[in-house]
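Records of this kind hold a single protein each, on a pair of labelled lines. Below, a sample record shows both lines together.
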Amino acid sequence: MILITTTEPASRPVGDLLREWRQRRRMSQLDLACEADISTRHLSFLETGRSTPSREMVLHLAERLDVPPRARNALLNAAGYAAAFPERRLDDPAMTAARQAIDLVLAGHEPHPALAVDRHWCMAAANRAVAPLIAGVDPALLRPPVNVLRLSLHPGGLAPRTVNLGEWRAHLLERLRQQIEVSGDPVLVELIAELCGYDTPAEPAPHAASQNFAAVAVPFRLATDVGVLSFFSTTTVLGTPIDVTLSELALECFLPADPATAAAMRRLTSRTEPEEAARRGRSRR
């Protein structure tokens, strides 16, 4: 599956956007002025539109406000300057090396599940271990773009099979709230409203054999045909992205929380190998 993003045009004055980012970071004008080594008077003039910032000043303030690349481009566009960060689709030839790197990380994580998601939690890629876990969900949830949070919490998705649904749901919603707090993304605001509106199915009985990782990480416990599988997850982002799309990509990698889950995932993943070989053989005919 290929991630597709588009650059959002800026339609508001650059001063309004700068003020919004400053307030989102809970900084006063004095705080930001000190951080940026400019006068509060100059910053006030920039925010009210009485002065127009140079390209260098826009980037300087964006750096101090820790503004993400997409929003930095919007700030530059609003001030009348060209974008600083390119934005290309993952299927762009220039992104071949990046796609290969992502595929290597996901494949290297097998036999455990791992997937790449974009800024709106839409799945961009996944390894072979994901497919057995999502088998049987509502096919409508698997139509591209597949939203991972919707797939996880929708009553037709993984929610009815999530043993610790209350705990896992609270964890995912809190991550989403933190992302909204940082980005102010209206698409995520709509998404969390949708997720909070789902009828939450009754949780299955707790899996007594599961190890408690509450002090370290929130576990994900899923009932499957081979028993209850227990995972904890890690999130990886690219350290020095030079493209908007790559800067917004996150790799969600799940690790087995007990030996039984590790053994089960080895068996489940090995089952898919003959099927994939058969599919490849049919496609070559």
Summary: The chain has twelve helices and five strands. Residues 1-10, 204-211 have pLDDT under 50 and may be disordered.
